[in-house]
Specification:
Elements (H helix, E strand, L loop, with lengths): L5 H27 L15 H21 L11 H5 L8 H22 L6 H8 L2 H14 L14 H22 L14 H13 L1
Helix pairs in contact: 1-2, 1-6, 1-7, 2-4, 4-6
C-alpha cells in the first residue's frame, strides 16, 4: 500500500538500530561522567540508568530484526547460515561479516550487563568497553552495505548514508567530550543544591 519493500524494511530497521545504539551510547557517556539531570538541565528527576537499559533492549531487538528480514528476500537468497555467519553470503560477505561481529559484540555486552551483579565491577567494565568496537563495526557495515542488494556498490551520498555520517559525527563529539571531562565529569554546579535534590540523586543511583 505504501510501497514499502522488504529491502526498505531491512534498511529502515538497520538505521533505527544505529540510532538506538547512538542514543544508548550517549546515555552511557552521561552516566559515566556523572551527569545529574536534577542539578543540570532539565532540572528534573530522570532515571538515566533506566533509559540506558531500555534503549539497549530496543537496540538488540532492532539489530536482530534487521538481518532476519533477509530470510524473506527471494533474490539474492540468504539462508539462515548466511544470516548467522555471513562469511559466504551471496553479496558483500566481508561487509556482512563486519555487521555480524557488531551484533555479537553487542549481545555480549548486553549479556554481561544482565549478569553484572555476579562479576566484579572491573571485569564488567572492561567487557562493557566492547560496545565501542561494536559501534565502529556497525557503522562500517551500515555505510558500506548495499541496501538494494544488487551491485555491492552503494550510493554513498543517499539519504540513509548521510544519516549515518551524522551519527558518526555525533559519536566523535561524544567521545571528545568524554575524554575532555574524564576524571571530573559534570561536577560544576549549575545552581544551589538542596538536600531534596541530593536525596533524589541518591535514590536514582540506588534504584539503578
Amino acid at each position: 500500500m505504501f510501497g514499502l519493500t522488504l529491502l526498505d524494511l531491512c534498511a529502515y530497521l538497520g538505521q533505527a538500530a544505529v540510532g538506538a545504539i547512538a542514543v544508548n551510547l550517549l546515555l552511557g557517556v552521561l552516566i559515566a561522567l556523572r551527569y545529574s539531570p536534577v542539578r543540570c538541565w532539565p532540572y528534573r528527576r530522570v532515571n538515566l540508568f533506566a533509559w540506558h537499559q531500555w534503549t539497549a533492549y530496543l537496540s538488540v531487538v532492532l539489530i536482530l530484526s534487521h538481518p532476519a528480514v533477509l530470510l524473506f528476500v527471494h533474490k539474492p537468497h540468504f539462508s539462515w547460515f548466511d544470516v548467522v555467519l555471513p562469511v559466504r553470503s551471496p553479496l558483500q560477505p566481508v561487509v556482512n561479516t563486519v555487521g555480524a561481529v557488531a551484533l555479537y559484540l553487542i549481545l555480549l555486552v548486553m549479556g554481561t550487563s544482565l549478569l553484572r551483579h555476579r562479576m566484579s565491577r572491573r571485569v564488567w567494565r572492561n567487557l562493557h568497553y566492547l560496545v565501542y568496537p561494536a559501534v565502529v563495526c556497525l557503522l562500517i557495515h551500515g555505510i558500506l552495505a548495499d541496501p538494494n542488494l544488487k551491485t555491492g556498490h552503494p550510493d554513498l551520498l543517499d539519504g540513509g548514508k548521510i544519516y549515518l555520517y551524522g551519527v558518526v559525527l555525533v559519536m566523535i563529539a561524544a567521545g571528545g567530550v568524554r575524554l575532555k571531562l574524564r576524571g571530573r565529569g559534570f561536577r560544576r554546579e549549575q545552581r544551589p543544591v538542596s538536600a531534596e535534590v541530593i536525596a533524589l540523586e541518591v535514590e536514582t543511583e540506588v534504584s539503578a
